[in-house]
Design a protein that fits this description.
By secondary structure, the chain is mainly alpha-helical. It has a domain of 29 residues. 71% of the residues lie in helices and 0% in strands. The chain contains four helices and no strands. Helix 3 packs antiparallel against helix 4. The longest helix has 27 residues.
C-alpha cells in the first residue's frame, strides 16, 4: 500500500505558496485601504460663509458695497 504517497504530499509546496500569496495580498490590500483613509480621499470639507461670499463677488453676483457690508457682518 502507498500510504502518504501520491498527489497529497507532492503538491504540499503549491498549497504553501498559495497560502503565503494570499497572506501577502491581504496585507497589501489592508495597507492600501488604511492609507486611503489618511490620504485625504474623504468627503470634501464644507465651504465657509466668507469663501462663498468671495466667490459670489468674484463671479459678479454682488456689488462691492454689498460685499463689504456682508464681510463686516461675518467678521463680527
Amino acid at each position: 500500500m502507498m500510504y502518504g504517497f501520491g498527489w497529497g504530499p507532492g503538491l504540499g509546496w503549491i498549497f504553501m505558496i498559495l497560502f503565503w500569496g494570499i497572506v501577502i495580498v491581504g496585507i497589501v490590500v489592508m495597507a492600501r485601504w488604511v492609507s486611503e483613509g489618511r490620504s485625504g480621499k474623504t468627503e470634501p470639507r464644507e465651504r465657509t460663509a466668507m469663501e462663498i461670499l468671495k466667490e459670489r463677488y468674484a463671479r459678479g453676483e454682488i456689488e462691492s458695497e454689498e460685499f463689504e457690508k456682508k464681510s463686516r457682518d461675518l467678521d463680527r
